[in-house]
Amino acid sequence: MRIKTALAAVALALGFAAAAPAQAQQANYPSRPITLVVPAGAGGGTDVVARVLADELGKRLGQAVVVDNKTGASGMLGTQAVVRAAPDGYTLLVAYSTPVFYAHHIFAKVPYDIRKDFAFITQLASTSLVMMVNAKVPVKNMQEFMAWAQQNKGKINYGSYGQGSAGHLMSAYLSDSRKLEMTHVAYKSEAPHIQDLAGGVVSWGLGTIAAAQGVLKDHRIRPIAIYGPRRLAELPDVPTMAEQGFADPEFNTVAWFTLLAPAGTPKPILARLEKEAVEIIHSTPMKARFQVFGLESVPGGSAQFHKDFDAVDPVIQKLVKISGAKAE
Questions:
Q1: In whole angstroms, what is the distance from residue 82 CA to residue 39 CA?
Q2: Across the strands, what pairs with 160?
Q3: What 3-state class would DSSP assign to 85?
Q4: Taking the model in full, what pTM does it have?
């Protein structure tokens, strides 16, 4: 009996000894730089959100926060890299809608389970996508666009910032629901898509103000509609799809930018990151910085993140079904 008691005491002591370093690491978090993995290229909306967040988060945490762009496979490559990272709070994901909300509906094989493999920290921002045409396309609103598209059935290319992206899905929905017979051209990220749109390689597409600011200012592309519930402050003269007679609820779907960590990240670390990120995105200076890029702060926190996921999931499922946007 005494031997059993002694062994139990040794086991308990070893347990405390093993737990002590982990608890110390959590208490001292962060003690080294943090990496925000962005599964998209530089210059797009996700990259802008990540870099703005990195600046402010670094100041609050007292450590450098660096952005690492990992492109490929419609955002799934960078997302998978975070799944494989140690769940210690030093590798996080700042993602756009495609790899988080859309991928499991569109792709036959997704190398992660977004609910099981990640801890949701918070939504960061949302944006309404802007429908833009190359400046040489002879249309200024949706009525003119539809007439032009009908006259050129089977001849028009449209671009998106990735197979299965929000831009692809919503563009495909317009094309297929109105039987416009257009061809989709997928790019690896937003910046090359916008550049080819400005250059006339594709005739139209959806994108964010963050990625399109330069070519909007030099008038190489023309914004003709907002895919969202209201006009954007940066483009006050551009009406929404609904204002132009396209009242389908699918045209009101916004794109989200989110912050996630690998599953298994200690709860105290997740709580710290959630607190800091939510305070950052709702601060007056951050809201002002977001507005310049057509972004809006959204209700924050992990609980809200789960609610948003549950609410948008059936909408995306419907979009995929109607548009037929499936990929291997």
A1: 10
A2: 186
A3: coil
A4: 0.83
